[in-house]
């Protein structure tokens, strides 16, 4: 074998190696693309499931909040109304006590003897 034959064999081996490299590279790219598509599909399915679960949870929480507001909102309103009415009653009773005190003082001046009436009128 001479140098030309070795160069020819080298070129044949190099061209064959280039073909193998190209085929290997294409196969790797194809497998990577298939893997990316598969992962993309799985990620999309996972995102859809998570979105559905999140929406279901949000809807469930809104339903519970509505029931809480409906049940306890009425009770809170009733408690507030009672508190306001008690305040109004207390103010009315205070006014009535003042009026009653004035009436008692006026009756005291009419009922008791002269000394007590004068003392009461002088100190009012």
Outline the structure in words.
This protein has helices at residues 3-111, 114-122. With 124 residues, the chain is mostly helical. Helix 1 runs antiparallel to helix 2 (114-122). It is rod-shaped and about 160 Å long.
How do the strands and helices of this protein lay out in sequence?
Blueprint: H1 3-111, H2 114-122
Helix pairs in contact: 1-2
Name the descriptors.
124 residues, mainly alpha, 95% helix, rod-shaped
Mean pLDDT: 85
Major sheet summary line:
none
Helix content: over 70%
Question: Percent of residues in beta strands?
Answer: under 5%
Overall 3D shape: rod-shaped
- For the termini, the CA-CA separation is 145 Å
Number of DSSP-assigned strands: 0
Strand-pairing-aware structural class: mainly alpha
Low-pLDDT parts are none
Number of H- or I-type helical stretches:
2
Q: If you compute it from the alpha carbons, what radius of gyration comes out, rounded to the nearest whole angstrom?
A: 50 Å
SSE sequence, one letter per element:
HH
Task: Please sum up the structure shown.
The protein is built from 2 helices and no strands.
